[in-house]
Amino acid sequence: MTPNSIEAQLSGQQLYGEQLTPEQIERWNEQTNAVHSALFATNQGVHSGYQYAALDHFHVVGALLRRRYELCLALGCANGDDVAPLAGVVSQFVAIEPMEQCWRTEIGGRPARYLKPSVLGDISLEDNSVDLVVAFDVLHHIANVSHVLGELARVLRPDGLLVVRDPISWMGDWRQPRPGLTANERGLPLAWFERVAGENGLQILRRRLCLFAPLLQILRKLGMTRLLAHRPIIALDWLLSEVLRANVRYRRRGFLQKLAPSSASWVLQKKPFAL
Predict the structure, then answer these.
(1) How far apart are CA 40 and CA 263, in angstroms?
(2) Burial class for 43, CB neighbours closer than 10 Å (0-12, 13-18, 19+)
(3) pLDDT at res. 254
(4) What is this structure's pTM?
(5) Contacts of 112 by beta carbon, 8 Å cutoff, 6+ apart
């Protein structure tokens, strides 16, 4: 890897992980899955709830509840808590999840079928067979995001929806240990993600910026807990994130560049076939 390519990845012009060989991707997946399996085992029996439910409802899930979906593909959904709020408008779920200890036969009372992802992220579903795809906080853990995004677009029906929430900053230098993070995760550069989505026939219906870290840090210092369970805080977080959107950088240096949202939520739609 050349110094120029490293700099391009650190700056967000390219995405780190896209250039890896299949063998390197397999090692990446093994490292990530080992950490997540350990966390799942540690938290077994501790009922804390899905902490982003109110955030997701405010930005995207509320809008999704206005229509019905025969089949929803949930990517990296663990035991399905993140997509369970959609059960009222979904007939059945297909979950792509590597941790078999998370597998269930139902999500939110709806039938669920779990599948293991392939090493490269190929999805064993037919073209144009899914009405809705949900990927909350997942893609930034995946090495070859563009390939997986292409697979999600392939299985999605024309006019079907893809919902994504992920970090949009580098999350610190992944070449060094980072407390609280796995070895490989990094955010998705905003412009990069939207360009690749467009190349795969996905158009943006809604993009909302969120998780303005300075606000959340201040509220925690004031002793507040479960911040993302409170709609007024989520709304204020969104307002500040949008007002300061001009500060968005992938690699953030200095105080001012850190006054920016750290994540984004997208609702994307697969373009219909041209007549």
Answers:
(1) 23
(2) exposed
(3) 85
(4) 0.93
(5) 80, 92, 93, 94, 95, 104, 105, 106
125 within 8 A of 41, measured Cβ to Cβ? no
pLDDT tens digit string along 179-216?
989 889 999 999 999 999 999 999 999 999 999 999 99
Which pairs count as long-range contacts for 117-125, CB under 8 Å and 24+ apart, including other chains?
119/22, 119/25, 119/26, 119/29, 120/22, 120/25, 120/144, 120/147, 121/147, 121/148, 121/151, 122/151, 123/73, 123/96, 123/151, 123/152, 123/154, 123/155, 125/73, 125/94, 125/155
For the chain, give every domain's residue range: 3-42+50-207
The C-alpha angle 129, 269, 137, rounded to 5 degrees, equals: 90
Instruction: Tell whether domain 3-42+50-207 is in CATH 3.40.50.150.
Output: yes
